[in-house]
């Protein structure tokens, strides 16, 4: 394998300025870590929040953005046992994915699923692990239950629809506009709701309610979510696009024995992320291999066009994942 460069390209953010490419010191794999030559990197909404200074990287993480990637392992840190040089992986990153190289904890890497390209693989880690951790573990969605995901045309939403459907759930999804709602239906949503044209709460309650909700909207949706849940229903918050401050009537929590919970992924311990990755490989990768779950890629931008890619996400004009092409 050729010698690695001392420097690498990386996207750097400064307050009030467009993203730019700079040459910085190449990432280095430490104990229990691997170095990945990045083919593609995923754009995620937390990147935008980090850029605004509201989502600082965890201790020890790179200061640059990028929470997931696909690529080839080109160096091994001390005590790495599961991977070898040349392995093709997709990985959950603590940061630093908008670059030529990034280090990843060994346990946060996953083999590229059978039948998936490196481009598609970059769209998987953040979404699949988030859905698995929140819908399947925290909310314990069961086959035959009814499931509602908000933002059904987002990266998380398109993944959640397919995973819940593969698991045997009845799926409801909300999306903004008829075109995005149609995409949700195409991906397997039994009931696709254009929230601009109708009240999702009215539609869901008229159908008898749901058992599990995955919500990234927050705001006024929180009360409506509680109203939509069946007895012993569970709602999981993973973001608050409309804000975390809400005025709630919590009587339904007692009367219907509801659970309102939430979580984040980035700040979890290394061992916990590794456990989630192994669960995804065991349970979700077979669905991917069978074609039941496939990443939905909206668009691919060159690394140098990261500013344009983030602007597209900020405008909410995408459906599925937005990716950066680094060396793919």
**Rounded average pLDDT:** 96
The first-level CATH class name of the largest domain: Alpha Beta
Query: CATH homologous superfamily of the largest domain?
Result: Medium-chain alcohol dehydrogenases, catalytic domain
Order of helices and strands: EEEHEEEEHHEHEHEHEHEHEHHEHE
Q: What is the percentage of strand-forming residues?
A: 25-35%
Report the sheet with the most strands, covering strand number, pairing sense and barrel closure.
7 strands, mixed
The N- to C-terminal Cα distance equals 18 Å
| Count of individual beta strands | 15
Q: Return the structural class.
A: alpha/beta
Number of alpha- plus pi-helical segments: 11
Percent of residues in helices comes to 25-40%
* Secondary-structure arrangement, i.e. CATH architecture of the largest domain: Alpha-Beta Complex
User: If you consult CATH, what is the topology of the largest domain?
Assistant: Quinone Oxidoreductase, Chain A, domain 1
The radius of gyration computed from the alpha-carbon positions, rounded to a whole number of angstroms, is 20 Å
Which spans have pLDDT < 50 for at least 5 consecutive residues? none
- Domain module tally: 2
From the spread of the alpha carbons, the general shape counts as: globular
